[in-house]
Design a protein that fits this description.
single chain; about 260 residues; mainly beta; 8-stranded parallel β-sheet; 25 strands; about 0% helix
Length: about 260
């Protein structure tokens, strides 16, 4: 199970809780997971768990809206034995009004930070969320023959702000014999689903460099070949960012596709 899980389905007074200086390591699921309102993690650490490091969820009857991770650290999640479970990022939000502030994510198998609408399910709703002054380093560490996740991922979400962050060396890890890891970007904006367009994404004052593919990609629907019928991407604001192409892999510093 998760190292720590809070849900309004299973607990009384699960909302409006703060957790300080906790550490969750090598659990068989998520390090920290919440579907309760106004839950705050301050200075918490999540290492080596089989799924996400930190997960803000939204379901049919509960949501982690207005929740926040502040000055937290996530590393080597979804990476046990070099494989992990195949699902999970350093930080994932599928709920509205959630925020990552001054957090660090590194060496996670999939994305470092993910604003994720992962199904057509109408309950999943990542919107009006942000990450500010965060760092993503060497995420997208898949060792399997498929894997595209970038350091920072806006995947089906809308009304998202990425401000003052650094994302670098995405996909540049220890994986061997891995062709698809060369697809990793420092930041990617797209969607996987026909009913979930991406819009109003604001990317301001960030630094992106040394990815194993295009440093930044704004994609008009679909991050995998079989998602080409996904909804489009509109209203992306890209202001005062620095993109520097590395020497590993292929692609340029910035791509709109």
């Amino acid at each position: 199970n998760s190292g720590w899980s809070d849900t309004t389905n299973g607990k009384v007074n699960g909302d409006y809780v703060q957790f300080n200086h906790l550490k969750s390591m090598y659990n068989q699921r998520t390090g920290f997971a919440s579907s309760a309102t106004n839950v705050v993690f301050n200075d918490c650490t999540s290492i080596g768990n089989m799924f996400e490091g930190f997960l803000f969820k939204k379901g049919s009857s509960a949501a982690a809206d207005y929740s926040r991770a502040y000055r937290c650290y996530a590393a080597y999640n979804n990476a046990a034995g070099g494989y992990g479970t195949g699902y999970g990022q350093g930080y994932t939000s599928s709920a509205p009004y959630t925020h990552f502030v001054s957090c660090t994510s590194e060496y996670n198998k999939m994305a470092g930070f993910d604003f994720l609408v992962y199904t057509e399910n109408p309950y999943t709703d990542c919107s009006y969320s942000s990450m500010t002054y965060c760092t993503s380093y060497r995420n997208g560490q898949t060792r399997r023959p498929t894997g595209y996740d970038p350091g920072i991922y806006c995947d089906g979400a809308h009304d998202v702000l990425v401000y003052g962050c650094v994302s670098y060396e995405a996909g540049s890890g220890t994986g061997t014999g891995n062709t698809q890891s060369q697809e990793s970007k420092c930041l990617m904006v797209t969607t996987e689903h026909a009913s979930r367009p991406v819009y109003n994404v604001h990317i301001v004052n960030n630094l992106f460099y040394n990815s194993s593919s295009y440093t930044v990609e704004i994609k008009n629907g679909g991050d995998y070949p079989n998602y080409n019928n996904a909804a489009g991407t509109t209203g992306v604001t890209f202001v005062n960012n620095t993109c520097i192409r590395g020497s590993v892999g292929y692609g340029g510093a910035f791509r709109i596709s």
